[in-house]
Structures are given as structure tokens and as C-alpha cells.
Predict the structure.
Amino acid sequence: MPELPEVETVRRGLQPVMEGAGFTKVEVRDRRLRWPLAKDFEKRLTGLTVEGLGRRAKYLLADLSSGDVLIMHLGMSGSFRVDQNGAKSAIAKYHHEKSKSVAHDHVVFHMSNGATVTFNDPRRFGSMKLVARAKLEREPLLRSLGPEPLGNEFDAAMFARACAGKKTSLKAALSDQRVVAGLGNIYVCEALYRARLSPKRGASTIAERNGKPNARAVALVDAIKAVLHDAIKAGGSSLRDHRRADGSLGDFQHNFQVYDREGAPCRSCKGKVRRIVQTGRSTFYCPSCQK
DNA sequence: CCGCGGGCCTGAGAGC
DNA sequence: TGCTCTCAGGCCCGCG
């Protein structure tokens, strides 16, 4: 599922039940995630307290009382659900009714406050990894990530600099987690539409000139921040799997302007939304509005 | 170093 | 109904 808004939605759902709580018991039902879970994964977690639950790009980071950090990624189809004190949440009922999902409950955290947090991931592209907090900066999964798009340090000047000299398209540059960390296929398409920039445009054409970021870089940074804020406010986008931890659906898919709207009328000009393939993935855009 | 294509998995939906 | 095929929100890796 998840791009930054969905991961942030999940984080906000898990924070109240995980922060300040301890792992009473950790069950691993299938270690075969993106990488096999370490043999001592359960042992290293059991008895620890979660001091904080943060996010970096699309990674969830749980700060633990041992000095380790639990890094979690949802891959394409991962989700968490929370069951409070044995009461079935909406998503638990949903999964129970469909019953097949239980087969993909790979990791179950039993928390000291009575809550159960279950990681479900049919495609198993998700991952979990424990690393020492002191080594977090050198962690290969995080080390080459670019700036957080919603952070103050991510601005037009920085973005323009990152695009300078790039040989690729804007679509590819925005999808590159080293340039800016957290966007995926949906929000790249939506941000480019809001900024009225073509996904095919060369990334270097938004680089700064005469030491000043140009108007395109300003528009694109504004569009990125706006679309992410709007999507977070809506609880993310629910296409197939994404749900909030309490089981409710995100709403932002109703606000897509171009994503998954091939052939449909552009909401701005009445032209048609087009789908092309760039670096192996679908791109949706309006050829007449986006230049 | 950079950019691209392949591959990892399962499931949903389209087309026959 | 059921089979086969394509495609899906991510990221790592190896290649040129």
C-alpha cells in the first residue's frame, strides 16, 4: 500500500497503544518477510518498553528501552491492526469475515496494556529489523534517504539543487527516495498534476538558475507538501489494503485528480487523463495541463 | 557514481 | 464457473 501519508496514518493509529507500553509476548508466525526475521527477534523484543513511535520516510521507527530501534516497513501490502483488550476492532471483524487474511498475520505483538498489534502482509514485501540506536545513522536502509518532504529543510532551493544534473525525468526524480523520501507512484502523479508540470519533463529543468530556485521548483515543492498534508488529513488513500489501525478506511482516493483515472476527463480542462509507462510503472497525467 | 530493468510475492480483476 | 494473464501503492540488486 503505503506511501508517506498512509505510513503516517498507521503511525498515528499505533502510537496511542504502543508508546509507553511493553512487549509482553511477541509471536512470529512467518519469518519470511522481505528479509527473514532474525532468529532472536522475539527474544530481543520481549520485556522491552516502546519509548516512542516515529517515522522516517515510509519507515516506522519504534524506540525501545534497550537502546535498540525497531525499523518496520509495510512494503506493498502490509498493514497493522489493533485489538483492544480482546475486543474485536472493525478491521479484526473485517479480516475475520474474510478469514483469509488471518493466514497472513505474520507478527503479533502482545502489549502490556492488553492491546494486540498484528502485522499482516500478503505479499511479504514488508520488513522488520532491529538496530542499535547509536548506529541508526549508518543503517543502510535509512542512510541514503533524502529529506523529509514535510520538513522545513525541504524547500525549493534544496530541491532544485538535488535535481541539478539529473538525467532523468521529473517522475523518476520524485520517485527516487534519495532526492526526497516518502513519495510513491500515487503522490508523485498527484503532485506533478497540482504543479502543472509534465512527468516527462527533464528533472534538471527545475534546477536553480543564477543561484535562485525557479518558479517550477517552488510550485512543485508547494504541491508536494500540499498533497501530502491533504492526504494525511484524509487518513491516507485506501485502494486495496490500506486501512487505519482502527480498521476505518482512508478517504484520499476520492481526491485523486489523475491517479488511476486513465481516459477520464481532466478536472481542470476537460481533456483526458493519459496513462504512460515510465521506468516500468504507470504514470497518469493531463497532457494539456501539465507542461 | 548514475540510471535502468529484473525480481521478489500474493491476490484482484479482466478477458476468454 | 474457472482458467490464464496482467497488473498492483516498494525497494534491493546487478548490470552497463
Remarks:
- Helices of chain A lie at 4-18, 41-45, 90-98, 140-143, 156-163, 170-175, 185-194, 215-233.
- The radius of gyration of chain A is 20 Å.
- The mean pLDDT of chain A is 93.
- Strands of chain A lie at 23-28, 50-56, 59-64, 68-73, 79-83, 105-111, 116-120, 127-132, 274-278, 281-285.
